[in-house]
Amino acid sequence: xxxxxxxxxxxxxxxxxxxxxxxxxxxxxxxxxxxxxxxxxxxxxxxxxxxxxxxxxxxxxxxxxxxxxxxxxxxxxxxxxxxxxxxxxxxxxxxxxxxxxxxxxxxxxxxxxxxxxxxxxxxxxxxxxxxxxxxxxxxxxxxxxxxxxxxxxxxxxxxxxxxxxxxxxxxxxxxxxxxxxxxxxxxxxxxxxxxxxxxxxxxxxxxxxxxxxxxxxxxxxxxxxxxxxxxxxxxxxxxxxxxxxxxxxxxxxxxxxxxxxxxxxxxxxxxxxxxxxxxxxxxxxxxxxx
Length: 290
Ligand SMILES: NC(=O)c1ccc[n+]([C@@H]2O[C@H](COP(=O)([O-])OP(=O)(O)OC[C@H]3O[C@@H](n4cnc5c(N)ncnc54)[C@H](OP(=O)(O)O)[C@@H]3O)[C@@H](O)[C@H]2O)c1
Description:
The chain is 50% helix and 12% strand. The protein has helices at 13-24, 40-44, 53-59, 70-77, 97-109, 139-144, 146-150, 164-191, 197-211, 214-224, 235-252, 262-274, 283-286; strands at residues 6-9, 29-32, 48-49, 62-65, 88-91, 113-120, 132-137, 154-157. By secondary structure, it is of the alpha/beta class. It has 13 helices and eight strands. An eight-stranded mixed sheet has the order 3-2-1-4-5-6-7-8, sandwiched between helices. It has two domains: 6-160, Rossmann fold; 168-286, N-(1-d-carboxylethyl)-l-norvaline Dehydrogenase, domain 2. It binds NADP nicotinamide-adenine-dinucleotide phosphate.
């Protein structure tokens, strides 16, 4: 199975990295891109150029799609919808859980076997041990084409509901952007006293590495519903201390806009009588739907 022919639709930064990984792993790789010139380097490396989407889809039992968004996926696949029956489609384009479910239904109506995917990597990480891809949707596509998928990154199958991969992809990115927000604020704050970012960076990295250890403890509290278990720093204390963060930003002439939203949430939770608990209880305030 390691030599299953694969088609890649979309040769942006990510699609090119995926196609290159498949070529390196010895798959006959057919490529198509709206702007045809982007295929040239890959063709020089051994890829086969498809002149049309129809030709590309017909070339391989597995079609990997990596386009800008789901609108571009529909624009690309709609004209060849009649030719998708029996084809395994692995759509690694980023989108929302709802979009993935709708795409899976669209594919099923056309007889295609649909696997959704969320790439947890940037292009240079593809085919390195650091990269992983979340998959959900057709188990049979995942199992049949596992060798080709594993050539891209470490593969994680999450279940038959196509929404599961984009949901968890977006959850991971949400965690990342929360962290990036804090990092940017921290650099703005230290920069307000002329401290070079490079001088402060090692300490920030050390602190974030150590604080990432909180994830497992929060998870245990959230799953048990007991936010008072294993509390090291209670919420009432944290809510009071958080004021210092906002005050210091103000004093240093740094906008608090990235940090500000957490303050009122903490205060509300304390006012509701949960000051002795941990920060993890804030998830109850974030879930606006049961
Ligand atoms: N790059 C990353 O770090 C990264 C990481 C994880 C996930 N992703 C996801 O991977 C997907 C591709 O990202 P990328 O970095 O390759 O983006 P990109 O470099 O901007 O490439 C976008 C691709 O989509 C094509 N495209 C856009 N609109 C189209 C349309 N209407 N019809 C047909 N093709 C269309 C482009 O074709 P043209 O060349 O003709 O414009 C190009 O092949 C995105 O969903 C992205 O969120 C990217």
